[in-house]
Amino acid sequence: MKPKFMTLTIAAALGAASLSSHASGYRFGSQSVSAQSTAEANGAEAIDASTIFANPAGLTRLEGTQIVGGVTAVVPRSSFTDSGSRRFTGTSSGGLTSQDSFAPGVVAAPSLYVSRKINDQWVAGFGLFVPYGSKLDYDNNWSGRYAMTNIKLESINLNPSVGFKLNEQHSFGFGVSAQLIKANLGQGVDVPGSIAALAGTPASAALLRAIVTAGGNPATLAGVKDGHGSMDGKDWGYGWNLGYLFQLDENTRFGLSYRSPISHALTGSAVWDFNVTTDPVVNKIIAANSGKKNSDVLLNIRTPETFSINGFRQIDPKWAVMGDATWTRTSRLQNLNIQFPGTVQGDEVILQNWKNTWRFSVGTSYKLDEKFTLRGGMAYDQSPVAGNTLRHPALPDANRVQLSFGTNWKLNSNSSVDLAYSYLHFQNASGSYKNSCSPLISGCTGNGELTQGTWKTSLHMIGAAYNYRF
Fold first, then answer.
1. Which of 22, 51, 454, 457 could link 78 by a cystine bridge, Cβ 3.0 to 4.6 Å?
2. Burial group, residue 331, by CB count within 10 angstroms (0-12, 13-18, 19+)
3. Whether residue 22 has pLDDT greater than 60
4. Rounded to the nearest 5 degrees, what angle is found at the Cα of 337, between the Cα atoms of 335 and 343?
């Protein structure tokens, strides 16, 4: 038997898809509360130190020393309805055919930015933010358990940056990133399907003989349950980003920004649980015949780069408009091969074949009075998933629309508070993902399952940030 274990693949794919707030995939909050309030349309606005993330050239517009500390609470709502998930044998996978509580109630994403003007030309800055993350916990007996039961992704990005003002029209920015990925995930192992498929074959007879010889009770196979695989892994990766800001006139400016790909060698450990019957002897023999053993895991990936074009226009003393278009090269994520060093089991191959994506956003701000500035924005974000047959339960992604609004409340001459709310509506996402391996095929790892159904998802994001300048 070759039961499937979902290794770091999904963690890597999800992280790459959500590398920035402009990329599709499950975003872990927002990298800036002021940006969130305009649906991330303010890349050329450079209103505070969080410009380090959107466009480091915007640092040259900041005076003195500025600190921005924020947090965004993400409140997801998602459901799944099965429409024919099957084992590799072609029979129904069984289990629960609907899920409506696999997403967490609330998850928080913090951010911190600091900028310091050195002289009339140079500004230094540092950013700490969460580029992506996810936490999904399906029931262990749901119909898609052979694809995945749970996943938890955590990440942090450290981004020291500098801005250089060449003259009144041209500014440049540069930053380097140190990015940490941590992943924990699990998946069911189709032991019942494998036992059923082997019935009446020489392999089944050999299994029964081994059980009897070892003093086990073969009758316990009648009530055999799923096994389970779980793993954890982490890696630091390094990249860089560039920004350019062009000041057309006193009220108009345009920006370009680029974030490089980041290479990760995700390493961790795989742990297998074959406590599938009431007889420990039988469990031990099934584990030995599965071809699996606790081992290391390795997955090499290179996350997609992003390129953004943005603009800002101060129409009058009260009104300003802004916009952003961001391209993400998610086509880097084709087939992902997971290795199990030190074992004889074959790689697990996850078919992604993702496509490149665009995100478009527009926003506005209105200065209500000396204390309050109102802000709002809309965005359309494409999904990298190329079709239903490539939509996996770990990332049931779809094109989405974002509506955001917020305010900046000036407390005094040195401090202010940003508040933001966003609603993201995803198109219904139908999936029909077929694993290309099988528990009875040697040279590869996989359950051979078909996970078929529809996901419905929406997100609420509530952000708050405190700004201090001196």
1. 457
2. middle
3. no
4. 160
